[in-house]
Amino acid sequence: MAENVPEYSTEDIIKSLIRNDLDGDLRYRAEQDLLKRWRLGFDLSFLVELIQSERSRDRLRGAYYLGELGEAIDGLKASVMPLADDPLSDCRRAFVGYATNSGCYDEAIGAGLAKCLHDLDLYVRVTTIKWAVNASDETFEAFSQLVNSGVGSRKPTFQNPLSNDFWNEADLKRAMRGLDIARRIRLKEKIQDIRKDFPEEDSFVLDNLHFSQTRHERLVKGGYEIR
Q1: Cα(45)–Cα(60) distance, rounded to whole angstroms?
Q2: Element (DSSP H or E) covering residue 91
Q3: Are 143 and 151 within 8 A, CB to CB?
Q4: pLDDT value for 31
């Protein structure tokens, strides 16, 4: 591919990126040109094809681009919804990122987010809690009602019903902890205080939330420009 990236078709750019033909600045400019086209609504079918691909590497690439878009794009919801159930955790996290960046919320998106709140992958779980922290009051309450009703819970399939009962209870407690943590952060409670009341929550989740909360402070102390 020559230097004049905008002259190439979306299909040719994607093929070059997949083949790893581009290096350094040219690769960056090619990806930025793709994102620019998609933000304008052009050639979205190629992004949808990546997101819906049966090949995991293509879905991962689509999930990455979805996160890089960083804004609401009309026409993507139907293709993004299956990512909430994707076997790849990066794809499930991309679904949460889509909900965050787009600001879209309805019962279907809420159900997908509820599954991600239950997720055993800590990155997916903490990303969902962050979404809940920043959701509007109306959206957060609607989401809380969905989770409280059992939406999103994983269904164990042990032969012994007592084993199923054990994991159903554990799963419900996990979801309730996530909601409670988000609710308390929304009320401006400090992570140090919240941590004391949630000894069962993985420390990574609370460390990550604390890291996000203190980003501004670190930037100021480090002399970086705040954006």
Answers
A1: 16
A2: helix 89-102
A3: no
A4: 93
In which region does residue 192 sit, left (phi positive, over 0), alpha (psi from -120 to 50) or beta (all else)?
A: alpha
Contact 45, 74 (CB under 8 A): no
Q: Is the pLDDT of residue 103 over 80?
A: yes
CA distances (Å), origin 189, targets 22, 197, 209, 210: 47, 12, 12, 11
Share of the chain above pLDDT 70, in %: 94
- What tokens does 117 get? 């709140």
Token pair in block for residue 36? 């620019």
Angstrom CA distances, 10 to 15, 34, 57, 103, stand at 9, 7, 19, 27
CB-count burial class (<10 Å; 0-12, 13-18, 19+) for 25:
exposed
Name the percent of the chain in helix, strand, coil, to the closest 5. Answer: 70, 0, 30
Give mean pLDDT, residues 100-111. 94
SS (H, E, C) 98-141: HHHHHCCCCHHHHHHHHHHHCCCCHHHHHHHHHHHHHCCHHHHH
109-162: pLDDT as tens digits: 999 999 999 999 999 999 999 999 999 999 999 999 999 999 998 888 888 989
Taking only the tens place, the pLDDT of each residue in 162-195 is 998 898 898 889 999 999 999 999 999 999 999 9
Are 143 and 110 contacting, i.e. CB atoms less than 8 angstroms apart? yes
